[in-house]
Amino acid sequence: MKKLPVILFAVLIFCISCSKKELAAIDDKNTETLNEAEIISGINQFGFNVLHLLPEDDIQNLFFSPFSISSALAMAYAGAAGNTADEMRKVLYFGQPNSSFHQCFGTLSAALQYSGDEDLKVSIANAIWVEDQYKLLKPYQQLIRDYYKSEAKEMDFIGAPEASRLLINQWVSEQTNDRIKDLLPSGSVDALTRLILTNAVYFNAEWDEHFNEDMTKKAFFYPETGDAYQVDMMYKRQHYPYYETKDFQILEIDYKGKRYAMMLVLPREKGKMTELLPHLDREMLADYDSLKKTEDVILYLPKFRLETRYEMSSILQEMGMAEAFSGQANFSGISGKKDLMISEVIHKAFIEIDEKKTEAAAATGVVMRLTAMPPVPRAPITFRADHPFLFLIREKHTAAILFMGCLGAPEPE
User: Fold this and answer.
1) Own/partner pairs for 283-291, CB < 8 Å, 24+ apart?
2) 6-205+306-369 CATH
3) I want to staple 161 with a disulfide (CB 3.0 to 4.6 A). Which of 135, 140, 171, 189 is the partner?
């Protein structure tokens, strides 16, 4: 099976009108903000909220990155003001749009990175691509430089939009080890484009203990709808952090170094994933972290590969972030003018797991156009993931979720 490293990518595209109206830049008079733990909790809950709004009548293979979407939108939020900022703050669980919030977000991004060995690598990169005739406010540039580690790169979006698109796609490819190619499709960059913000997160990790390939056997998987079919089912008996209720089982598998882990949330009954989704939230994670115990578990886990694509605009608006998509959008902290609005938020993702490692990729495009504890000895627990289940990849110390998904129908092998 072809192997790809785990990658996460987010991109924002800003297109503007010729409005001359000016407003104040980033408002540091707002002193209220969130600490790092609250930001993490908010990112996680935002992910669950998105999960809840995905169509319940089509529970198949879901996969996206709440961290990527939040990171990309945080750079846009740095220039938001008024009601636009208020709606973004509520939907994304952000603090006030001041330098203190972005400093905390930047500290979190730095803390999540790791490149100490070949078994685990997590890196985060940002870049700003600006039309060379379009001027950004200095406070905005400074904030993005200080906390998102990004310098503005001048581009000729007006005269050479296609060449600009290819250059940005090349940067994306380089930052993701050639795993995300042609992120910006043909026609997505045109003469109205003025600013593109890009965020890339690269994640590549081996399991702390590999599954034995010889133990992988064909077994039936039971999707939410339709007939059962055979997949490659991995097997391992081991002591895992574990928690259960009458409705579901939760198990966590460590990656090398035990800093990151994949969490599996499995309904006890087949055909119950749709009923379980509304109950998945940050409180569930808190219960797991406080009540989990190390248990002897017989684990059956399918090898799988997912590729997904979502148009997120309607979901974000349904969540309450409406003004950012309208002619009333206020991103005046970016250029001093109320001339930017979001028109599309596109998210693509990829993940593959096998006996040795987890590998994935994700991409987000935000397009802005003209404004108009000790084990207790007992019989081993069986965790047979042969029907739809939720999975998360998170950093264990902070509990920050990088990836989130639901395996509803793995491809047959």
Assistant:
1) 285/44, 285/399, 287/243, 288/243, 288/250, 288/263, 289/399, 291/243
2) 3.30.497.10
3) 189
Instruction: Give pLDDT tens digits along the chain (413 positions).
Output: 333 445 555 555 555 433 333 333 444 555 565 788 889 999 999 999 988 887 655 557 888 888 888 888 898 899 899 999 999 999 999 988 778 899 999 999 999 888 877 788 888 888 888 888 888 899 999 999 999 998 888 989 889 989 988 898 888 778 777 777 777 778 888 887 788 877 787 788 899 999 999 999 999 999 988 899 999 999 999 999 999 999 999 999 999 989 999 999 999 999 888 888 877 888 888 889 999 999 999 999 999 988 777 778 889 899 999 998 888 989 899 888 888 877 777 777 778 888 999 877 776 766 666 565 434 456 888 889 888 888 898 999 889 988 888 888 888 76
| Paired residues of 8 in beta bridges | 201
Q: Which long-range contacts (CB under 8 A, 24 or more apart) does 139-145 make?
A: 139/25, 139/26, 139/333, 140/25, 140/26, 140/78, 140/79, 140/333, 140/334, 140/335, 143/26, 143/78, 143/99, 143/102, 144/75, 144/78
Q: Which CATH superfamily groups domain 208-302+374-407?
A: Alpha-1-antitrypsin, domain 1 (2.30.39.10)
- pTM, two decimals, is 0.85
* Phi, psi (rounded to 5 degrees) for 224: -60, -40
Task: Write out the residue limits of the CATH 2.30.39.10 domain(s) in the chain.
Answer: 208-302+374-407
Q: Name the 3-class secondary structure at 106.
A: helix
Residue type at position 356: K
Domain boundaries for CATH 3.30.497.10 within the chain? 6-205+306-369
**Which DSSP string do the residues of 291-313 spell out, in sequence order?**
H-EEEEEEEEEE-EEEEEEEE-H
Dist CA 288 CA 401 (whole Å): 14
